[in-house]
Amino acid sequence: MTDWVEAPLRYAAEDLDDYLDVREVLTAAAVGTMVDPIQLGGRNPNWVSRTTKGHSLFVKYETTAPPAPRTCSRAKTFHDLLDADDRLRRNISTPTLRAMSEDGRVQVYDVVPQSPTAQQRLVERTLHPRTMYRIGQSVGVLHAARIDTAPAVHPAGAMPSSFAVGDVDDAIVPGLSAAQLVALRLLHGDRALHTAATRLLSDPSPTPSGPLHGDLRLDQILISDDEHHWIIDWEEFGTGPTARDLGSLIGDIVNTSVIASLCSLGSDPSGREAHETAVRTGLENAKTLAKELCSGYQEAWCRTRPRRLLDRVWAAEISRFAGWHQLDRLLANAAGVVTLTAQSRALAGIGRALLLDPDAFIEEFELDRITA
């Protein structure tokens, strides 16, 4: 649903014609036949193209059937909730859903034209703080939504890279890259870090629970030229600690800002001092965007849930999730490569600090803005 011309292709594209369920949904929707569909990267097969009737469509097929007690995909649950909640529809934009299979595994959306992701905008230094404020409002409305009278909403999907905490399943080790094995050794060799990460992902959260996106990152947000935004990819939607969404998004702002700043040094950075200055610059840029995100979030939350106050414990949990995001990116970026980059190691160090000393992050990033 992004600018698909620039999106990465799979090395071995799968033929859309091989998916009977997808063809049946497209036929029932009467949108025409997809012409020379291009397959994009992602966990699930997905395609984009114009149709013989002139529609520009993005089609996704979730390969894994929902396990009991769920009877449909999390994306379908989200769209059912959106249909049932006027406030959500007014405050959260998603690409137009053209058609969906009964179990929600096949999803057909209109392509959002000329709308880069928030990640692209940040790298290009065109991500406006005011846009982050409005994104914060959308997330705040989502988290404060009441689901007691809505369609059944199950717990959100597992956190990305959660396989790395606790006891690692021996069965997955042969499929890991050399760099991922090094990353696991770093995580498991640091007792304090491993304990903090395991508790964050395994223990019951002391913070407010509610409906959440479940995989909220900058590349899950599209932004148009007039600064309208859409939140996409609701495959992990469900209930859980709301600090997870906000922490992951702030963590991604930190991650992308620091990497963009480091990349500005070019291929021949002038020593350790230049490297440290670039990291500080990235963190300052991230702080500006995170402050606006949190301000918008607070405004929407307090307007919707004036009697359900947020506290410092909740802010500390946001910090920990922001820290875990750096380790998740460390593991994700290590897939298929031999060595860890200096950038990844530096961000892992930042993640460790956020997990072990969340109070310092609260002060530095002024997360007390979103506490009562």
Provide an overview of this structure.
By secondary structure, the protein is an alpha+beta fold. It has helices at residues 20-29, 74-84, 86-91, 118-123, 129-144, 178-189, 191-202, 243-263, 271-304, 312-333, 342-356, 358-365, and strands at 38-39, 46-50, 56-61, 97-100, 106-110, 209-212, 221-223, 229-231, 238-241. Strands 1-2-3-5-4 form a five-stranded antiparallel beta sheet. β7 and β8 (229-231) form a beta hairpin. It is globular, with a radius of gyration of 21 Å. 44% of the residues are buried. Mean pLDDT is 90; it is low at 1-11.
Topology summary:
Blueprint: H1 20-29, E1 38-39, E2 46-50, E3 56-61, H2 74-84, H3 86-91, E4 97-100, E5 106-110, H4 118-123, H5 129-144, H6 178-189, H7 191-202, E6 209-212, E7 221-223, E8 229-231, E9 238-241, H8 243-263, H9 271-304, H10 312-333, H11 342-356, H12 358-365
Antiparallel strand pairs: 1-2, 2-3, 3-5, 4-5, 6-9, 7-8
Helix pairs in contact: 5-9, 6-10, 8-9, 8-10, 10-11, 10-12, 11-12
Indicate the low-confidence ranges by residue numbers.
Answer: 1-11
Structural class: alpha+beta
User: What is the 3D shape?
Assistant: globular
Radius of gyration: 21 Å
- How far apart the termini lie comes to 38 Å
The residue-averaged pLDDT reads 90
Biggest sheet strand order reads: 1-2-3-5-4
Helix content: 40-55%
SSE string, helices as H and strands as E: HEEEHHEEHHHHEEEEHHHHH
Number of beta-strand segments: 9
What count of helical segments does DSSP give? 12
Describe the largest sheet.
Answer: 5 strands, antiparallel
> Beta-strand percentage?
5-15%
